[in-house]
Write a structure and sequence with these properties.
Alpha-Beta Plaits, alpha+beta, Trigger factor, domain 2, about 45% helix, peptidyl-prolyl cis-trans isomerase activity
């Protein structure tokens, strides 16, 4: 029976980590007035071994269920389906098959009871081994599982961080208004040589080793000179050409069948269009906004930039306070959990983020200028920080008795839906169907925990002024985003 197939779910409603006495002293733990016994052995600060002994009479319900299940699956001549006596099943199919079915049915319950009795916080699935099974007498098994380490959260009110001061200059305002002006630019054909800022319509042909590539021909491509969004060298090639003019240049291809190879590019300009920006006056303000004058538009731009910079300042404060908090707490790292987290992050990067843009990991590392070893070390460091962030903030949630209201959960759900590109109702349905509501509640709770730590910390700007970060809904949601980024759980 060593190889019995097992499926043990992680138990819910676990209250807290085992006490130090529990962790150090294996013991028998009668469960109620029954005779099931369990003992806990600490293997390291993040892993334990449970040893459980179950008197055979406690398997009666599972044995009955096993006989009933087998009854529905088999046929025996002379008996109606579902009415085959137990002794006949034992004779025809073997008592061992019944015991295996019964044990697989019973193990999750006895494992969960042992976990709750020891007041453990398990992480992931246990490794279960049946050590003894005596028909009619006893079932014994062990279960090794990672657990949340017991943490001591020190006084964090002494944390001090420095963030950038909020300063909006006239240059910032002018740049913002200019960006808005760019959105209302118009284009018109011109009969002159192309210059920087013009939009040219071009035909392109790429050759490698003198051969035109099958996917190396493009027609009627609009390109803004100076934008750097097409091919290296094209700006110099088309600048000074009028409609009908051609040029040849060499460039490294950024995609396609010959990606990364040097190619000879022929470009023909078919049209030149100039961009015309609207005049910066009251009429433009009325066109581009709800304001009547340009001065009102600029004043609003200044206020908007101030809000953005204050939000950035709050995010910076949260990130720095979180880093300082993590330095204060020693967190033993569960090795299996860390390995799983590293693999998950790598899989998501390769098959989701990079896969969506048609890039592989090798090309990504080349663009980042990183070796495989550097990438893996960085990934491990990020994973460790994510796990540590969750452990520490969860401990603060418990310590500070942080709760999450329905409105807070709804607001977070809506933001998550927007980030994932789904409608809120659709996203909410998916969350419920996949049993992810507790995960979202945990995210908000950890965000509130971080906001609590930030509120207790001293935050100064680069000018030496105290920065007051109010613990309002926006701050909590911003803190939740900061936590998600640290944990690597962004939508």
């Amino acid at each position: 029976m060593q190889a019995a197939r097992l499926c043990v779910s992680e138990p819910g409603a676990v209250r807290r980590s085992a006490t130090s006495a529990d962790r150090q002293n294996p013991r028998s733990q009668p469960q109620g007035d029954r005779t099931v016994k369990s003992a806990v052995e600490t293997l390291n600060p993040t892993r334990v071994r449970l040893t459980v002994e179950v008197p055979f009479e406690e398997l009666k319900a599972s044995l009955d269920a096993a006989y009933k299940k087998i009854n529905q699956q088999v046929t025996v001549k002379g008996f109606r389906q579902g009415k085959i006596p137990a002794r006949v099943i034992d004779q025809r199919f073997g008592r061992g098959a019944v015991l295996e079915e019964a044990v697989n049915d019973a193990l999750p319950k006895f494992y969960t009871e042992a976990v709750n009795e020891a007041e453990l916080n398990p992480l992931g699935q246990p490794e279960v081994d049946i050590t003894e099974l005596k028909d009619g007498e006893l079932l014994s098994f062990t279960a090794e599982v990672d657990i949340r380490p017991a943490l001591e959260i020190p006084d964090y009110s002494g944390i001090e961080v420095t963030v950038d001061a909020v300063e909006v200059t006239d240059e910032d305002v002018e740049k913002s208004v200019e960006q808005l002006r760019e959105r209302f630019a118009t284009t018109s054909p011109v009969e002159r040589a192309a210059a920087e800022g013009d939009i040219v319509t071009v035909d392109l042909e790429a050759k490698v080793d003198g051969e035109v590539l099958e996917d190396g021909v493009a027609a009627d491509v609009d390109y803004t000179i100076g934008s750097g969004q097409l091919l290296d060298g094209i700006d110099d090639a088309v600048t000074g050409l009028e409609a009908g003019g051609s040029a040849t240049f060499t460039s490294e291809l950024k995609g396609g069948s010959a990606e990364g190879k040097e190619a000879e590019i022929s470009v023909t300009v078919k049209a030149v269009k100039a961009r015309e920006l609207p005049a910066l006056d009251d009429e433009f303000a009325q066109l581009a906004s709800e304001f009547d004058t340009l001065d009102e538009l600029k004043a609003d731009s200044r206020k908007r930039l101030e809000r953005m910079k204050k939000f950035d300042q709050a995010t910076q404060a949260q990130e720095k306070v979180l880093d300082e908090l993590l330095k204060l707490v020693e967190v033993p790292m569960p090795e299996k959990l860390l390995a799983d987290e590293v693999n998950t992050r790598k899989h998501n990067l390769e098959h989701h983020q990079l896969g969506q843009i048609g890039m592989n990991l090798e090309k990504y590392l080349e663009m980042q200028g990183k070796t495989v070893e550097e990438f893996e070390a960085e990934l491990k460091e990020q994973s460790e920080k994510g796990i540590k962030t969750q452990f520490v903030l969860d401990e603060i949630v418990n310590k500070e008795k942080v709760s999450v209201g329905q409105d807070e959960l709804t607001e977070h759900l809506v933001r998550r839906a927007q980030s994932s590109g789904m409608a809120p109702d659709q996203f909410a349905q998916a969350v419920v169907e996949q049993g992810q509501v507790p995960m979202l509640v945990g995210e908000v709770a950890r965000g509130k925990a971080l906001a609590t730590v930030v509120e207790a910390a001293t935050v100064k700007d680069s000018a030496g002024e105290i920065v007051n970060l109010e613990d309002d809904e926006d701050e909590v949601e911003a803190a939740t985003e900061t936590v998600e980024a640290a944990e690597g759980t962004e939508a």
